[in-house]
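Input for the complex:
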Amino acid sequence: MIELLGAWAPLLPVLFVALGGLGLMLVDALVKDKAELAMGTFVVLSLGAGLALGLWNEPVTAASTELFGGWVAADRLSLFLDVAICGGAALAALLGGGYLREHQLERGEFYVLVVFSAFGGMMLGRSSDVLTLFVALETLSLGVYGLVAFRRTSPRAAEGALKYFLLGSFASAILLYGSALLYGATGHTDFVGIAASIEAGDAETRLTILAMALMVVGLAFKVSAVPFHMWTPDAYEGAVTPATTFMAVVVKTAAFGVLLRVLFVVFGDDMLSAPSTGWPRVLGALAAITMLGGNLAAIVQRNVKRMLAYSSIAHAGYILVGIAAAASGPADAGWSETALSSVLYYLLAYTVSNVLAFGSLILAGSHGKEAVSYEDLAGLGRRHPAVALPFVLGILSLMGFPPTAGFFAKYYVLSAAMQMGTGMLWLVLVAVLSSAVGAYYYLRVLVFLFMKQPEPGAVVAVPMRSLYVVSALVLSGYFVLRMGLAPNAYLEFALEAARTFG
Amino acid sequence: MSTGGELLFVVCGLIAVVAAVLTVSLSNPLRSAVALLTHVTALAGLYLTLHAHLLAAVQLLVYAGAVVVLFVFVIMLLGPGALDSKAEPRGWVSKTVGAGLLALVAGAIAFAVGKVNPETVAIPGCPDGQAECSQFGGVNALSAAIYRDAAIPFELVSMLLLVAIIAAITIARGRTRDEKELTDSVDARRFARRAFPSDAEAPLLNPAKMSTGPLRGQSDEPSAAE
Amino acid sequence: MDIGLGTYLSLAAILFGIGAVGFLSRRGILLQLMSIEIMLNSVNLTLVAFNRWNPSSHAGQVFAFFVIAVAAAEAAVGLAILISFYRLKKTVESDRADLLKG
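Predicted:
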């Protein structure tokens, strides 16, 4: 199969997912009833992840490199992101299969948009040119706007989509302006060419710094770092929960992947870790306010979905700690592989934990009645222990409690930051403090699940019965525990991907 | 640059700025759309001064011919609803301060990039009588650049357009009959709960959409009122 | 008058600023969408101007082509969201999007 594709082989996962999406469209159009699109989507996306894993040890031929001409990269980082994106999207599709049917919203467009957005995310992860970056980012974003506005009868969905669209396209315009200035400063649009031009000192320094600032701001919007996070809670709350899951796991993973590439490939040693530019400190400050802002805002939420949205902002902050740590290494020693691999490991752990938490929230509601507020969950653990179990696991993992994936994710990121010396110590302190703050609202979910009882006469949530949701929970729960009990294999996986940056 | 080019630049540049200001400041969206049309046309003129002839034509085709028409179409579709615009809620102080700050940032960027002034670079021309030569900004050269060199992003754009079509249909398609029948019980319940969150005995906002009885073992109808 | 690259870039920066101010200060969604179009157009002007002074390849003009395509797609999706929003809320003011708070 691989020989058959020849030089195209490194693009196999992306091509497969794109063709799979087209196939699903045909199935949706031709098969009128009982098309198990959720299952089809799951199969397509998990095969995409499998193909990416299968290509892991395949050497990239010179013919491929020439064929791709600098537009897309063929390296282990992109394969790693493929696995994370396809895996997260496949689980979100499973959740959608249960949720949409239960709430009578099932329409084929949902799955098609999931597959095509995942395709956009995969292209974004491997984009190696500002032009590909922009187009792939828009492919991802336009699909996600459609997913957020999916529930056409809901004013909330329209509102969330509107806010997300307006701020998202504003951010895209800023990112694009940065890309244009970068092209002007260096005369190249491909990352390698830009990096070479910056290294050779050909680039206009003032323009390059301006371009880098604009690009970082644009990408910070996409990963929802404070103060560019305003759209996040609204879009997360307005969207149907499987779409929220998709946004939380896929959009964030893809955006962080490309942020890594932009920071460490494009701007590289000369811009990023040169002491005069102060970028590590800027990234550290961004991480600190993101962690604090996300965690503090999450405390006051009364809506669990909104709380999880703010928690995803806080997690973006923890990931940024790893990035800041990687950026603040010594300039000539190459990038700290430990720090970069901790970021990638965090992305994996974050994906499975979030699927678990959102999936449990989906499982807790049925028949058009979603569990959304804390009160909806009151006493659920007593009445339905089987439903509460994945919820507890997901919450503990998001909180960073051993032995779950989330614990090691935080541990690796923080120890990578510690290794960078005393300059990062304050950031570690902020991270630990804000995690302690975060424990409050995570534990509150557990308190409501097990120690509260619903008020008399209040509407209580009745869990749905759905094989789709249950299998998504079992899969993500397995990985949460596996990554918590035996993290080494996954860390090694992340480390091999991080070696891309050299 | 020739004198004619300079004249074109000055005229088109002025029109572009004035039209942009009008676009964002007029209160009637229809007038804004016309100002936007003027703006994109002036930009096409600027592209001409930059040896981007094909791009100028495409700018007219796509922007003037499609995007602005799409805007006008939507304004007409919404009818008077698109036009009613109540007084801007923000005070003039915060507006002026915000605009001033942004103008400052834009001015700083303009100052920073304005200093970039390399020597005038001659456009590589064609020797007389050479038919195969492709000119800078012309159809031959650009189509080679797009369809041959940039084939991968081009294919990516085709996927982008497909996604945009699906997304737009998903969002804006009229509600099906089923959906009209189906009350949005999820939202109805949220609204109902928001009314008197502390008072369990308070009347619910929309009892028809609520299920007030015990939920376990209820019927399949989401809107079944007990 | 000396018209060089800097002149074009300054003009584009000013247009970008006008678009950004319009986006942030206006509340009509249609106006905000048009402001985004102005911003994208100013980026195109930047790209083409840079390409004029670096004519060894067509990278800038090609980029501008793709931006035009993306901008059209974005406008279509944005207007679709606007129509959906208008159907449900009967308004085109983005500050009337006030259901989601917290």
